[in-house]
Amino acid sequence: QLQLVESGGGLVQPGGSLRLSCAAAGFTLEAYAIGWFRQAPGKERERVSCINRGDGNTYYVDSVKGRFTISRDNAKNTVYLQMNSLKLDDTAIYYCATAAICSPWSAHFGSWGQGTQVTVSS
After folding, report:
1. Long-range contacts of range 1-5, CB-CB < 8 Å, 24 or more positions apart?
2. Which residues pair with 56 in a beta bridge?
3. Are strands 78-83 and 68-73 parallel, antiparallel or unpaired?
4. What is the DSSP letter of 84?
């Protein structure tokens, strides 16, 4: 099982920013597509963003387009999710996960981190 560790969550006011990090232990993230998912209480898990291996194509759910940016730093073996202009509805636990290729479906992602809580509140 590949080990992923998310960090960077916290409490932020509406309109604020956070940067989430997804780090890998014992393997190279560059070899995988990496997805960021979130799950709020009482809601289904949704894929927020994904970055492919190789071509580096990125994907975003409509609700975060223009506000969130996914990126890789291969030297640090880390994938980031920069979140700007945060809204109350962005409150959730955020997870990163690996896949062979970006897919909208969480079932296509194999290894998952433990998650990091993001709370947007005034």
Report:
1. 1/111, 2/26, 2/27, 2/98, 2/110, 2/111, 3/111, 4/96, 4/97, 4/98, 4/111, 4/112, 4/113, 5/113, 5/114
2. none
3. antiparallel
4. -
Tens-place pLDDT, residues 70-87: 999 999 999 999 999 999
Helix, strand, coil shares of the chain as percentages rounded to 5? 10, 50, 45
As given in the structure block, the two tokens for residue 17 are: 């920013």
Which bin fits 14, alpha (ψ -120 to 50), beta or left (φ > 0)?
beta
Dihedrals phi, psi of 24, to nearest 5 degrees: -110, 145
Does residue 105 have a pLDDT over 90? no
